[in-house]
Design brief:
It is a single chain. By secondary structure, the protein is of the alpha+beta class. The protein has 2 domains: about 40 residues; about 40 residues. Helices cover about 45% and strands about 15% of the residues. A 3-stranded mixed sheet has the order 1-2-3. β2 and β3 form a beta hairpin. The radius of gyration is 21 Å and the shape is elongated.
Length: about 100
């Protein structure tokens, strides 16, 4: 999956999003939902009301959010940034790591 980052002042077009009216939402049943590959933004009178996405995509988003929150928590602790730097150096072979063999 490609990481997408928004840069201020640069328009972002997400081709996996489709804007639909509430009428289309009423027509969705289990078979239709399985076939939907896009994220649907349900709107009425051009006002977004809800977002509908695949459950797997929701779980992926939840996981990425949890990882980001853990990273922020680690980095906000005293000495956290230095701990990460040392771990990266160790992983790259530039630290005081102990060989497994």
């Amino acid at each position: 999956m490609t990481a997408m980052y928004k840069i201020e002042g640069v328009p972002h077009i997400d081709t996996s999003v489709e804007y639909v009216g509430t009428t289309r939402l009423r027509k969705l049943n289990a078979a239709n939902l399985r076939a939907v590959n896009k994220t649907l933004v349900v709107q009425e009178n051009d006002t977004p009301l809800a977002v509908l996405l695949k459950y797997e995509k929701f779980l992926t988003m939840q996981n990425k959010l949890e990882v980001a929150l853990r990273t922020v928590e680690l980095l906000s602790k005293k000495g956290g940034f230095q701990t990460v730097v040392e771990a990266v150096r160790d992983a790259a072979g530039g630290g005081n790591s102990i060989p497994l063999s």
